[in-house]
Amino acid sequence: MGSALRRRETLPTMLTRLELCFVSCMIATGVAASGRQPAVTAQPEAIRAAFLKLIDRPRVALEPTLRSRPESGGLVAEEISFATEAGQRVPTLLIKRSGPSRQPAVIVLHGTGGSKEGMAGRLRDLAAKGFVAVAIDGRYHGERAGASSEGMSPYLAAILRTYRTGREHPFLYDTVWDVMRLIDYLETRPDVDRARIALTGISKGGMETYLAAAVDPRIAVAVPMIGVQSFRWALDHGAWDSRAWTLREAVDAAAKDAGSGVGAPFMRRFYDKVAPGVYGEFDGPSMLPLIAPRPLLVINGDSDPRTPIGGVRACMAAAEQAYKVQGVPERLVLHLQPDAGHQVTPEADRVALQWFERWLKSTGRS
Fold it and tell me: Which of 131, 138, 198, 230 qualifies as a cystine partner to 311, CB 3.0-4.6 A?
């Protein structure tokens, strides 16, 4: 799959040899005609292929633009824009040390309501350590926000529009596509070592991190922060509300459309439309194992209501088995922040930086 991505094959071409496997696996798991998603036993390549097919769209030329400016401490900042699909350009902030040599790169994804500028402090810290550090504006965030409508933020309005029309996937999936196209761009740069590209993100960005790392093997190291979770576990254990709260205006409007109250049954129907498979074949316990054997550091709070600890442990149990089977259990670590809710502590940031240095620097890779 990695070589196929590097040859720039179209996703439909890559999928033809996997779709039959996926169909047979899904039949074996008993997918109901109602669309209710069962527990997943599909093979990893079938899950990866199904996700790539879901997010696939026609590729366009990157056509990057770049404007550079000096920063303090010998750093350089670049304001970049590149095309990800027809009608979509991705505003990007890149900070690095000046110099001709190829360096490892770390992509940093923001959370709900954030922007690439909000990640600038992290980018500078990474650049000071010798990484090419990159952040983008997610769909309907930052420079891509657009106008508010329906009495809610552009992001939530877009999610509601997806619920009503089935078009786009602004909740998580479209940004995964943008990350893959960002990697296409980074691979063209003479200052980036294409074999050492890492991905991290916070909250929404943490979810996008593990989804993207699961399906794109060019991501050498992944550090999802306060994002790893099992949507299924939350729905099954009455813990769905804290995650739905971040989408509250869109959820309430969708429930009103449906003439329904908001509860676990409605949230299943809501997710089926806005993020198909997110509590089934693309849930955390299915996707995290796909990252093996690449280094994966999971950072969560032990008291985070948006990523309930029971769901986190379900994800980790599945991932631990995959890393054990591949003989690299040391490449999977859960850093559980003590007495922490939905936040990233300075200690967790320090642990993440050490993880990047261990696995991306040439002297520390194993």
Answer: 230
